[in-house]
Automatic annotation (TrEMBL):
CDD domains: HAD_Pase
Organism of origin: Methanorbis furvi
Record's protein name: Phosphoglycolate phosphatase
Known role: Catalyzes the dephosphorylation of 2-phosphoglycolate.
Pfam families tied to this protein: Hydrolase_3
Length: 227
């Protein structure tokens, strides 16, 4: 039986312009009020997700930076992992190669990150991967940003640890996500669902593909699995 819900944010609760689905918010509030724990899990920063958690009305169980950071409740300890210096060295190598070609590769919320480095999607990810082949760094394109992250970190690996702190197992969770950075948690959770906009990798990892895209699809999944 599913006992909890973990959800990605961009492309799963929001549309492709990052506008939050009010129906998804209402469905999350309904399940929170019914006593179902809800985890927000994103590539975004802890402070961004905290603000969103407060305003949606969840209890502060969060995974940030694609699993590099997690925390149980608003007052729990912040767990962060990964070699950010190394990710930053990888980013330097990328800009030395790509900026002379006119690509800007703007950093995203650099001052607020503990684990990864995220930047604008204006360079080819395959080329970046080739450039960093000798470094133990993952290159993750979420469809919203490119992330450089230490190997071994993922939303799924963080879910394993966070679930334990919550007195649950990953199998207790319904998971929702739209992109390659959600594959690990879609696979490890009890049931994985994706909205209709999901990437091929996320669809392949899911148990169920919703007929509607973005937050509308996720709201339908909550209505179906937590009626
Ligand atoms: O930060 C990103 O790149 C995407 O964020 P998401 O994990 O909420 O989709
Ligand atoms: Mg997403």
């Amino acid at each position: 039986m599913l006992k909890a819900f973990i959800t990605d944010i961009d492309g799963t609760l929001t549309d492709d312009r990052r506008r939050l689905s009010t129906r998804a918010v209402e469905e999350i509030r309904r399940v929170v009020d019914a006593g179902i724990p809800v985890v927000l899990a994103s590539g975004n920063t802890l402070c961004f997700i905290d603000a969103l958690s407060k305003m949606i009305g969840t209890e502060g169980d969060v995974i940030a930076e694609n699993g590099g950071v997690y925390r149980h409740g608003y007052t729990g300890d912040r767990h962060s992992a990964g070699d950010r210096e190394l990710c930053f060295a990888a980013y330097k190598r990328i800009i030395d190669t790509f900026q002379p070609k006119g690509e800007e590769l703007r950093l995203y919320s650099n001052d607020y990150r503990y684990s990864d480095v995220a930047f604008a999607r204006d360079a080819d990810v395959n080329e970046i991967q080739k450039l960093l082949a000798d470094m133990p760094v993952q290159v993750v394109d979420t469809g919203f940003a490119i992330h450089l992250q230490s190997e071994g970190l993922s939303k799924g690996a963080a879910l394993e640890k966070l679930a334990e702190l919550m007195g649950l197992t990953p199998a207790d969770f319904l998971a929702a996500g739209d992109s390659i950075n959600d594959v690990s948690m879609l696979k490890i959770s009890g049931t994985g669902v994706v909205p209709a906009n999901a990437s091929p990798e996320a669809r392949a990892a899911a148990d169920c593909v919703m007929s509607k895209p973005f937050g509308e699809g996720t709201a339908d999944a909550l209505a179906r699995y937590f009626p």
